[in-house]
Specification:
- The structure is a single chain.
- The protein has 232 residues and is an all-alpha fold.
- The chain is built from ten helices and two strands; from the N terminus they run αααααααββααα.
- It has a two-stranded antiparallel ribbon.
- It starts with 15 loop residues before the first helix and ends with a helix.
């Protein structure tokens, strides 16, 4: 008799940080597999990238109005490997802290709120009169990670990362380095800067509501549980 063996990762169901990293990794792989597949079938690399970006990446002005769902998809893939890798490291740093302090159910919704509000700020900035920036498509989890950073600082501004018995680094220093690095990279591109600000604001507001007794993250899991009950 044959038996089916289901592969599971211990604790995966209660580890939202790991779930986000896996989802981002899968999105990164799918995006580049599709793009490479188009190149294999005869498309030029630039054309292939623009074809995939049109349906997955966040784009300004008419590109967004034609494909508004990209507000929900742009944060699950990246154009470059190193951007993806560094975002995942920062995501683990801030997301794991939130998960340990207030539970895993606060991590994914906070990340999504950051992506949505950051994306809205990004799109609206393109409508500023006289903005002299070349339109660009956007694939990045940066706004979501910004939300996690702001959420972590809002929850525990005095927290310290201990790297040994005597050496520790304040959370404010780690978050400050993260925000400063993004500011240095994006300061000359206003839409990208506004994306980061939107993410930070989303994280701050989410955790502020949580500290006041509200539950801004539970509705997502309730919908997920309801859909799971229907399917199963």
């Amino acid at each position: 008799m044959s038996q089916r063996v289901r592969f599971t990762i211990p604790g995966y169901g209660q580890n939202a940080v790991l779930q986000l990293i896996v989802a981002s990794s899968v999105g990164f792989i799918i995006y580049h597999c599709i793009r490479v597949g188009l190149v294999v079938f005869g498309q030029q690399a630039v054309v292939a990238t623009s074809m995939v970006d049109a349906y997955a990446a966040l784009q300004p002005l008419k590109g967004f109005t034609d494909h508004p769902w990209t507000l929900l998809t742009y944060g699950w893939a990246h154009h470059g490997f190193w951007e993806w890798a560094t975002n995942m490291i920062w995501l683990y740093c801030f997301g794991n802290l939130i998960q340990n302090l207030v539970g895993y159910r606060q991590v994914i919704p906070t990340f999504i709120y950051g992506q949505i509000l950051g994306g809205i700020f990004y799109v609206l900035t393109w409508y500023i009169p006289g903005l002299r920036v070349q339109p660009m498509s956007l694939l990045t989890a940066n706004a979501g990670v910004m939300a996690l950073a702001a959420a972590a600082v809002t929850l525990a501004p005095r927290f310290r990362f201990y790297l040994g018995d005597r050496f520790s680094i304040p959370l404010l220093v780690v978050a400050g380095i993260f925000v400063a690095l993004n500011g240095l990279v994006n300061y000359s591109v206003l839409p990208l800067l506004m994306l980061c600000i939107g993410g930070l604001l989303a994280g701050f507001l989410t955790m502020t509501l949580l500290k006041k007794g509200y539950r801004p993250c539970t509705w997502m899991y309730r919908i997920g549980e309801a859909l799971n009950n229907v399917v199963t």
